[in-house]
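Section 5: illustrative case.
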Protein backbone atom coordinates (compact mmCIF):
# COMPACT_ATOMS: atom_id res chain seq x y z
CA UNK A 1 0.00 0.00 0.00
CA UNK A 2 0.89 3.66 -0.36
CA UNK A 3 0.25 6.22 2.35
CA UNK A 4 -0.46 9.93 2.33
CA UNK A 5 0.46 11.73 5.56
CA UNK A 6 -0.97 15.19 6.25
CA UNK A 7 0.42 17.58 8.89
CA UNK A 8 -2.64 19.71 9.71
CA UNK A 9 -3.23 23.05 11.44
CA UNK A 10 -6.53 24.44 12.66
CA UNK A 11 -8.17 27.68 11.63
CA UNK A 12 -7.02 30.51 13.92
CA UNK A 13 -10.57 31.26 15.04
CA UNK A 14 -11.15 27.86 16.69
CA UNK A 15 -9.47 26.14 19.62
CA UNK A 16 -7.47 22.94 19.45
CA UNK A 17 -10.18 21.14 21.45
CA UNK A 18 -12.91 22.34 19.05
CA UNK A 19 -10.77 21.31 16.07
CA UNK A 20 -10.28 17.80 17.47
CA UNK A 21 -14.02 17.42 18.09
CA UNK A 22 -14.91 18.60 14.59
CA UNK A 23 -12.44 16.18 13.02
CA UNK A 24 -13.40 13.12 15.06
CA UNK A 25 -17.14 13.73 15.39
CA UNK A 26 -18.01 15.35 12.06
CA UNK A 27 -15.27 14.81 9.49
CA UNK A 28 -14.42 11.16 10.04
CA UNK A 29 -17.89 9.84 9.08
CA UNK A 30 -17.82 11.96 5.91
CA UNK A 31 -14.35 10.75 4.98
CA UNK A 32 -15.37 7.12 5.48
CA UNK A 33 -18.44 7.68 3.31
CA UNK A 34 -16.88 9.63 0.45
CA UNK A 35 -13.34 8.17 0.17
CA UNK A 36 -14.22 4.68 -1.12
CA UNK A 37 -10.69 3.61 -2.07
CA UNK A 38 -9.12 4.16 1.37
CA UNK A 39 -7.70 0.98 2.88
CA UNK A 40 -6.53 2.46 6.17
CA UNK A 41 -7.43 5.73 7.86
CA UNK A 42 -5.78 6.99 11.05
CA UNK A 43 -6.38 10.32 12.77
CA UNK A 44 -3.66 11.39 15.21
CA UNK A 45 -4.61 14.29 17.47
CA UNK A 46 -1.46 16.16 18.49
CA UNK A 47 -1.07 16.38 22.27
CA UNK A 48 2.42 17.92 22.37
CA UNK A 49 4.39 19.89 19.79
CA UNK A 50 8.17 19.85 20.36
CA UNK A 51 9.77 23.16 21.22
CA UNK A 52 10.77 25.23 18.20
CA UNK A 53 8.79 23.11 15.71
CA UNK A 54 5.68 24.10 13.71
CA UNK A 55 2.50 23.88 15.76
CA UNK A 56 0.27 21.04 14.51
CA UNK A 57 -3.23 20.00 15.57
CA UNK A 58 -3.52 16.62 13.88
CA UNK A 59 -1.63 14.24 11.64
CA UNK A 60 -3.75 12.16 9.26
CA UNK A 61 -2.68 8.91 7.59
CA UNK A 62 -4.62 7.75 4.52
CA UNK A 63 -3.52 4.50 2.86
CA UNK A 64 -4.46 3.18 -0.58
CA UNK A 65 -3.70 0.18 -2.77
CA UNK A 66 -2.17 2.43 -5.45
CA UNK A 67 -1.37 6.05 -6.19
CA UNK A 68 -4.15 6.07 -8.82
CA UNK A 69 -6.65 5.21 -6.07
CA UNK A 70 -5.60 8.43 -4.33
CA UNK A 71 -5.04 10.70 -7.33
CA UNK A 72 -7.94 9.62 -9.53
CA UNK A 73 -10.43 7.75 -7.33
CA UNK A 74 -10.28 9.55 -3.98
CA UNK A 75 -13.95 10.61 -4.00
CA UNK A 76 -17.10 8.62 -4.63
CA UNK A 77 -18.63 11.43 -6.72
CA UNK A 78 -18.30 15.15 -7.53
CA UNK A 79 -20.91 15.83 -4.85
CA UNK A 80 -18.88 13.82 -2.34
CA UNK A 81 -15.84 15.94 -3.18
CA UNK A 82 -17.85 19.12 -2.58
CA UNK A 83 -19.14 17.80 0.76
CA UNK A 84 -15.60 16.99 1.92
CA UNK A 85 -14.29 20.35 0.75
CA UNK A 86 -17.00 22.30 2.59
CA UNK A 87 -16.43 20.36 5.79
CA UNK A 88 -12.65 20.75 5.74
CA UNK A 89 -13.02 24.51 5.27
CA UNK A 90 -14.86 24.69 8.63
CA UNK A 91 -11.82 23.69 10.69
CA UNK A 92 -8.65 23.43 8.58
CA UNK A 93 -6.24 26.36 8.46
CA UNK A 94 -3.59 24.58 6.39
CA UNK A 95 -1.95 21.24 5.74
CA UNK A 96 1.28 19.85 4.34
CA UNK A 97 0.99 16.57 2.43
CA UNK A 98 3.66 13.88 2.12
CA UNK A 99 3.51 10.87 -0.19
CA UNK A 100 5.13 7.93 1.59
CA UNK A 101 5.90 4.24 1.39
CA UNK A 102 5.28 2.58 4.76
CA UNK A 103 7.69 -0.08 6.01
CA UNK A 104 6.55 -1.83 9.19
CA UNK A 105 9.53 -3.02 11.23
CA UNK A 106 7.58 -4.18 14.28
CA UNK A 107 3.83 -4.75 14.62
CA UNK A 108 1.59 -4.60 17.67
CA UNK A 109 0.70 -7.89 19.32
CA UNK A 110 -2.95 -6.75 19.29
CA UNK A 111 -4.31 -4.36 16.62
CA UNK A 112 -5.52 -0.95 17.70
CA UNK A 113 -9.29 -0.66 18.31
CA UNK A 114 -11.37 0.93 15.57
CA UNK A 115 -12.95 4.31 16.23
CA UNK A 116 -11.66 4.72 19.78
CA UNK A 117 -8.56 6.32 21.24
CA UNK A 118 -5.71 3.84 21.31
CA UNK A 119 -4.37 3.48 24.84
CA UNK A 120 -0.68 3.69 23.98
CA UNK A 121 1.86 6.47 23.66
CA UNK A 122 2.62 7.26 20.03
CA UNK A 123 5.32 9.53 18.63
CA UNK A 124 5.37 10.76 15.05
CA UNK A 125 8.85 11.93 14.08
CA UNK A 126 9.60 13.74 10.80
CA UNK A 127 13.24 13.19 9.79
CA UNK A 128 15.60 15.22 7.61
CA UNK A 129 18.77 13.56 6.32
CA UNK A 130 22.31 14.46 7.29
CA UNK A 131 23.85 17.06 4.95
CA UNK A 132 26.05 15.35 2.40
CA UNK A 133 23.79 12.32 2.06
CA UNK A 134 21.44 11.81 -0.85
CA UNK A 135 17.83 10.86 -0.19
CA UNK A 136 18.58 7.34 -1.45
CA UNK A 137 21.58 7.01 0.89
CA UNK A 138 19.47 8.17 3.83
CA UNK A 139 16.74 5.63 3.05
CA UNK A 140 19.25 2.79 2.67
CA UNK A 141 20.88 3.57 6.02
CA UNK A 142 17.54 4.01 7.80
CA UNK A 143 15.99 0.78 6.57
CA UNK A 144 19.01 -1.48 6.40
CA UNK A 145 21.50 -0.32 9.04
CA UNK A 146 19.48 1.55 11.66
CA UNK A 147 16.47 -0.80 11.79
CA UNK A 148 18.24 -3.76 13.44
CA UNK A 149 19.89 -1.46 15.98
CA UNK A 150 16.55 0.12 16.91
CA UNK A 151 14.86 -3.25 17.29
CA UNK A 152 17.73 -4.50 19.43
CA UNK A 153 18.27 -1.53 21.73
CA UNK A 154 14.71 -0.11 22.21
CA UNK A 155 13.17 -2.80 24.45
CA UNK A 156 9.96 -0.85 25.12
CA UNK A 157 9.20 -0.25 21.45
CA UNK A 158 5.82 -1.87 20.71
CA UNK A 159 5.40 -0.80 17.08
CA UNK A 160 7.85 0.76 14.65
CA UNK A 161 6.89 2.09 11.21
CA UNK A 162 9.26 3.83 8.82
CA UNK A 163 7.38 5.98 6.30
CA UNK A 164 9.76 6.80 3.47
CA UNK A 165 8.81 10.12 1.89
CA UNK A 166 8.79 9.81 -1.89
CA UNK A 167 9.09 12.56 -4.51
CA UNK A 168 6.00 13.54 -6.49
CA UNK A 169 5.91 15.03 -9.94
CA UNK A 170 6.40 18.50 -8.47
CA UNK A 171 9.28 17.66 -6.08
CA UNK A 172 12.69 16.14 -6.72
CA UNK A 173 14.03 13.61 -4.19
CA UNK A 174 16.85 15.93 -3.17
CA UNK A 175 14.42 18.83 -2.52
CA UNK A 176 12.11 17.05 -0.08
CA UNK A 177 11.25 18.94 3.11
CA UNK A 178 11.40 15.66 5.07
CA UNK A 179 13.04 12.40 4.00
CA UNK A 180 11.09 10.15 6.34
CA UNK A 181 8.41 10.08 9.01
CA UNK A 182 8.70 7.45 11.73
CA UNK A 183 5.99 6.14 14.05
CA UNK A 184 7.14 4.86 17.44
CA UNK A 185 4.78 3.26 19.97
CA UNK A 186 5.37 2.68 23.69
CA UNK A 187 2.94 1.42 26.30
CA UNK A 188 3.10 4.65 28.33
CA UNK A 189 5.12 7.78 29.01
CA UNK A 190 6.80 5.91 31.84
CA UNK A 191 7.84 3.14 29.44
CA UNK A 192 9.25 5.75 27.09
CA UNK A 193 11.36 7.12 29.94
CA UNK A 194 12.55 3.80 31.34
CA UNK A 195 12.50 1.40 28.37
CA UNK A 196 13.72 3.53 25.50
CA UNK A 197 17.18 1.95 25.73
CA UNK A 198 18.31 -1.44 26.94
CA UNK A 199 21.52 -0.06 28.46
CA UNK A 200 23.90 2.89 28.47
CA UNK A 201 25.99 1.20 25.78
CA UNK A 202 22.86 0.57 23.71
CA UNK A 203 21.95 4.25 23.94
CA UNK A 204 25.46 5.21 22.82
CA UNK A 205 25.21 2.86 19.83
CA UNK A 206 21.84 4.34 18.79
CA UNK A 207 22.93 7.95 19.19
CA UNK A 208 26.16 7.35 17.28
CA UNK A 209 24.26 5.77 14.42
CA UNK A 210 21.65 8.54 14.35
CA UNK A 211 24.48 11.02 13.82
CA UNK A 212 25.52 9.16 10.68
CA UNK A 213 22.31 9.74 8.72
CA UNK A 214 19.89 12.10 10.55
CA UNK A 215 20.43 15.84 10.31
CA UNK A 216 17.28 16.89 12.17
CA UNK A 217 14.29 15.21 13.76
CA UNK A 218 11.68 15.87 16.43
CA UNK A 219 8.82 14.01 18.11
CA UNK A 220 5.14 14.98 18.11
CA UNK A 221 3.21 13.15 20.84
CA UNK A 222 -0.23 12.14 19.57
CA UNK A 223 -3.39 10.29 20.51
CA UNK A 224 -4.13 7.72 17.82
CA UNK A 225 -7.64 6.96 16.49
CA UNK A 226 -7.69 4.17 13.90
CA UNK A 227 -10.85 4.73 11.84
CA UNK A 228 -10.53 2.15 9.06
CA UNK A 229 -8.56 -1.02 8.47
CA UNK A 230 -9.20 -3.13 5.36
CA UNK A 231 -7.19 -5.88 3.78
CA UNK A 232 -5.41 -4.63 0.62
CA UNK A 233 -6.64 -5.84 -2.75
CA UNK A 234 -4.44 -8.55 -4.29
CA UNK A 235 -2.67 -6.87 -7.21
CA UNK A 236 -1.17 -10.09 -8.63
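Designed sequence:
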Amino acid sequence: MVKMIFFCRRRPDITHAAYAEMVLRDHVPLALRHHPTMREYVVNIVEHTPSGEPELDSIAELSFDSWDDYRERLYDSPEGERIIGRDVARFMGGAAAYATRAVVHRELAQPAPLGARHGVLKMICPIRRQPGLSHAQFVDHWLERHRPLALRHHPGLLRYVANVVEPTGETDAEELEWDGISELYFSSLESLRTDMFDSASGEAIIREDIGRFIGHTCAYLVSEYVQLRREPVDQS
